[in-house]
Amino acid sequence: MDEPIIDEALRERLKSALWFSIGKIVDEEIIQLNVNATPQFIGALTEMVWAQLENISRDLESFARHAGRSTVNTDDVLLLARRNEGLGELLKAFVDEENAGKLADKGKGKGKGVAKK
């Protein structure tokens, strides 16, 4: 499988943004839990999350490719979550809610359902 070529500077910027976001989340949690977290912990957690994101992205790309598509869609994400029952149910409910909202918005088109005099 060919690995996409990503600019190393972009990769580092993305990892830095991830580190910053994880750091903020950890800071919020340590205040609530009244515990400490070292910078090494945040770094290790960031590396673990990065590795998971790489695995997830490869799986999603494989699912889309297997379905003959070049774009990942919600079906791929739901397939990825199939082994985590709670997550799968949450995602399915979210997708159903979004789809219901789109259907409702479709019926609100210009002049539809409005009687003109």
* CATH fold descriptor of one domain: Histone, subunit A
Question: Helix amount, in percent?
Answer: over 70%
Can you tell me the residue ranges where pLDDT is under 50 for at least 5 consecutive residues?
Answer: none
Order of helices and strands: HHHH
Mean pLDDT reading: 89
CATH superfamily of one domain: Histone, subunit A
Q: What is the number of helical segments per DSSP (H or I, 4+ residues)?
A: 4
CATH class of one domain: Mainly Alpha
The CATH architecture term of one domain is Orthogonal Bundle
User: Which word captures the global form?
Assistant: extended
Number of strands: 0
Approximately what portion of the residues adopt beta-strand conformation? under 5%
* Category by helix and strand content: mainly alpha
Q: How far apart, in Å, are the first and last alpha carbons?
A: 63 Å
What is the radius of gyration computed over CA atoms, rounded to a whole number of angstroms?
Answer: 21 Å
Write the layout of secondary structure elements.
Blueprint: H1 8-33, H2 39-66, H3 74-80, H4 85-106
How would you describe this structure to a colleague?
The chain has 117 residues and is mostly helical. It has a domain at 42-104: Histone, subunit A. The chain is 71% helix and 0% strand. The protein contains four helices and no strands. The protein has helices at 8-33, 39-66, 74-80, 85-106. Helix 1 (8-33) packs across helix 2, helix 2 crosses helix 3 (74-80) and helix 3 packs antiparallel against helix 4 (85-106). The longest helix is centred in the middle third of the chain and has 28 residues, at 39-66. The chain is extended, with a radius of gyration of 21 Å. The termini are far apart. This is Apoptosis-inducing TAF9-like domain 1 family protein. One of its GO terms (molecular function) is DNA binding.
